[in-house]
Each structure stands twice: as C-alpha cells, then as structure tokens.
Write a structure and sequence with these properties.
five-stranded mixed sheet; 14 strands; globular; disordered N terminus
Length: 469
C-alpha cells in the first residue's frame, strides 16, 4: 500500500506498503469505474516479442541477445523511488542498450486518465496490490514471463495478483505482520513477551501489564477506519481467509471474522487497548510513556522506533504474530505493492526485463534491499516476496539498532514463510471501508457487537459495492 507517515522533520524511510487512506480509497473506487467502462487498449509495439496468437493479452519476453530501446517507468516519489533509481546503473551493466526514463509520479492521480486516453502510457508502474484487480483489463497478463519464478514467490503475493487465471503484477514486497513490543517496559513488571504464542497469551500478558500499570492500554486499537480494516485483513490472512474469495464473492460472514472481531471487542471491553490512529501524536505519546506496549502491525512499523520514538528507541523488539490457535500460522500479510505493465506501453517487454532484474536477479534485489546511499543499513520496512532472496541465513539489511540490535530480517523472513495463500483483492476493497472499517469504529465506541459489524457490513457491501460492479 502507499506510505503513511506523520509529518515530521526527519528523513522519511518508506516501505512499499504504508497506506494513505483517502488517496487509496478514491483511487481504488476510480479503478473500479475504469475497469467497468474504460476503452479497450491494445498492446503497443512489442519489438521482437510475439504473444501467442490464441492469447494476445499474455506478455512474452524479448528474444535476442542484446535487447535495446527506451522504457518509461513510473514510481511514487520518495525514498523508494531513489532506491529504484539507484538500481538503474546495476541494470544497465546487464542491459546496456536499454535506457530507463524513471519518473516520480502521483500514480493515484495520473494512472486512471492515462489508461483511459491511451496517451503517454508508461511501460511499467509501481502499484498497490489492492488496485491491481481494478486495472487488470488494461494490464498485461504476466503468467508466461513469471513462469520460471512463480513457484519461488510467496503464495500470498501470487494470489493477490491473480485474476481469472492470469497474473497481472510482478510481486514486489512481502509485508508480514509482526508483534512489536516494548521489552524494557514489560520486563520491569516481570513479563517475558517471548512466551506469547497465541492471542489468548497476548490477552493474558496485557491483563498482567494493566494490573501493574492501571493507566495503561497495552494493545494498540486502530482509530483510522481504513487502517483498522487493513489490520483486520492481516488477522484474517493468518486464518487463510480475506474479505472476498478468489471469485470476488464476499465472505465476511464467517467464523474466522467473528473470532477476530470478538477478540478485538474483548480488548476494548476489558480496557486493554489504546485507541489511536497509527503514529499520530497521541499514539506516539502513549508508546513513549509505556502505556501502550503491544503493537500488532506490518513490518513497516519498524521505522517508528528508528525515527519517531527517541525516548524508547532500543526498548522495542519484534516477534512473529501470535497464532489464533496453538500451532497456527504466525504470519499474516498487511499491505503490499507490485509492478504492473500496461498494455498501452510501447516497450512493455523491455520493462519486464527491468522488473525481472530488480526482483529475481541477485544484483537487483541486493541493490533494492541491501545497504545503499539511501538506506545505509538496508531497506528494513519490508522483505522480498521472492523466497530465494528472502533467505534467513543471508540477510539483505543489517540488524536494527532501534530494536536493540535485533536481527529483524530473520524474524520477518520466518513470519513471511508462515503467511497462508490469499485471494485477489477486490476492486471495491477501499469502498468497503465506509461500511466495515466504519462499523469497526462503532464497535470500538461500544455501539455495535461483533455480530452487528458482520451483518451490517456484509449487507451494505453486497448491496452498494458487489452488486454494482
């Protein structure tokens, strides 16, 4: 997802997945309309690549030993743009005759109209996983070019980019959920967080901490409707489910969601939660004061101890998420991005070579996640979705000083390997925030029960979103 960081004066580390709620919601709704009514866009000149006659929507890799030409690549502005930009020199060592025109673009604002008009269509675009399905009819099916790698990509990332038998994104990052905890504060009251293995254990630890510090709300409860829904999907991912199945059918009314919402409601009713919006000043204050000590979130929370929590930097650690039952998965996905290749681009097959290099070539993924001028210790807000790159014994980024020198790489890789497979993110996902995300906030207000959230949200999403596709 897009980046979400509070305004600050310090440098801005960006993972590929921090959501920008309003922009993402508007863009995804727009993407839905685009998929429904946009004009058909035909593939551009593929050079010497030739798609099979029976399926002209499937991209083919270039042939020949010396591919040449120019590609236009769109990325979001920020540090990650700089990382990709710096990797171009490495790419050109392998492909010296491909010129990369790399542009920092407000993708949410520009991509829809660009695809509708078919004017100046880029060859490759960095895109939130949640938006891939909405644009799929305008994108190349990458099944053939990904075939040599697909068995080694995290299944969840393949699944979220798949639709009707095609794969429409080159998977970029894996964003495993982790349980961040204030080790120092917990140890002061005699709690060993490493003994937490299930969500029942987490409740027990939170009760013990609150008994020692009555002013605390140990567990984070998200106040943003968008982020609360995103976090809910992280929990659901652990249980192998999501808001929609592989056919886009709503499946919110299920024992899994009832269990998760019931657990969140217990956190609320017992006063075990701090309800705040992710890393806003009120959230940061409770983290720094030791009143909020458990933060179940995507790996990209790692930047908070590094830049926003000076008083408790070094006190925080990360561990895999608790399991919903003993022996259950301790990894769940929260957000993520991929690279897509519009069919209207003039050199899509050459853009594929660029993304193939970044994601599947050791020189490429080392340039992205390894130490560089932008991230001297390496990019530690995500891990690669390509499993040979995500080797626990060969870390691409350094231990994190703000996590007490912890080897976050190995923790995240292990959590990532436990993420169950997923399903494509429906084009109406962000629109569901007005129903599901908002109803979760009403539950946190004490107005709705978990059952109410499920029934009301299911009815409204089905009527207002699913049936209007």
């Amino acid at each position: 997802m897009d980046q979400l960081h509070p305004r600050r004066r310090t440098a801005r580390p960006v993972g590929a997945c921090h959501p920008r709620p309003v922009a993402a919601a508007l863009a995804l709704v727009a993407a839905t309309a685009l998929a429904a009514c946009g004009p058909e866009i035909t593939p551009g000149d593929g050079g010497d690549a030739t798609a099979p006659a029976d399926d002209p929507d499937v991209l083919q890799a270039p042939t020949g030993d010396s591919p040449s030409g120019e590609i236009t690549i769109w990325s979001r502005s920020g540090d990650l743009y700089k990382v990709f930009d710096a990797a171009i020199d490495d790419f050109n060592q392998k492909y010296p005759d491909i010129e990369v025109d790399h542009r920092a673009v407000d993708i949410d604002a520009k991509l829809q109209n660009t695809l509708i008009t078919g004017t100046d269509v880029p060859d490759g675009v960095f895109l939130d996983d949640a938006k891939v399905a909405g644009f799929a009819e305008h994108l190349w099916d990458l099944s053939d070019v990904l075939q040599p790698y697909v068995d080694d990509i995290a299944p969840q990332k393949v699944d979220v980019n798949s639709l009707d038998g095609g794969i429409y994104g080159v998977p970029f990052d894996l964003n495993p959920g982790l349980l961040y905890y204030n080790k120092t504060a917990l140890e002061k009251v005699g709690i060993d967080a490493t003994r937490i293995e299930t969500y029942d254990d987490l409740l027990a630890a939170a009760r013990e901490y609150k008994s020692a510090r009555p002013d605390s709300g140990p567990i984070h409860l998200e106040r943003s409707a968008f982020l609360a829904q995103l976090q809910l999907e992280m929990y659901a991912s652990q249980l192998g489910t999501s808001i929609a199945d592989e056919n886009g059918e709503l499946r919110l009314d299920s024992p899994e969601y009832e269990r998760i919402l019931g657990w969140l409601d217990t956190v609320r009713t017992e006063g075990l939660g701090t309800r705040a919006e992710y890393l806003t000043p009120s959230d940061i204050e409770t983290l720094e004061s030791g009143r909020q000590v458990f933060y179940p979130w995507a790996i990209w929370f790692s930047f908070a101890p590094q830049q926003l929590l000076p008083e408790t930097a070094g006190d925080w650690r990360a561990m895999p998420l608790p399991a919903w039952e003993e022996g259950g998965a301790r990894g769940g996905a929260m957000g993520g991005s991929s690279f897509v290749l519009p069919k209207g681009g003039e050199s899509s097959e050459l853009a594929w070579l660029f993304y193939e290099f970044l994601m599947f070539d050791e020189a490429g993924y080392t340039a992205v996640w390894g130490p560089n001028d932008i991230y001297p210790g390496g990019l530690n807000t995500s891990i690669p979705s390509y499993r040979p790159a995500a080797d626990a014994t060969e870390p691409l980024f350094d231990p994190v000083d703000a996590l007490g020198g912890q080897d976050l790489w190995s923790v995240a890789v292990e959590a990532g390997r436990q993420i169950p497979g997923g399903a494509p993110i429906p084009a109406w996902w962000a629109g569901a925030v007005d129903h599901l995300g908002t109803n979760m906030q009403r539950m946190f207000d004490g107005e709705l029960t978990p059952r109410d959230v499920i029934e009301r949200s299911s009815a409204d999403i089905q009527k207002n979103l699913v049936e209007r596709q």
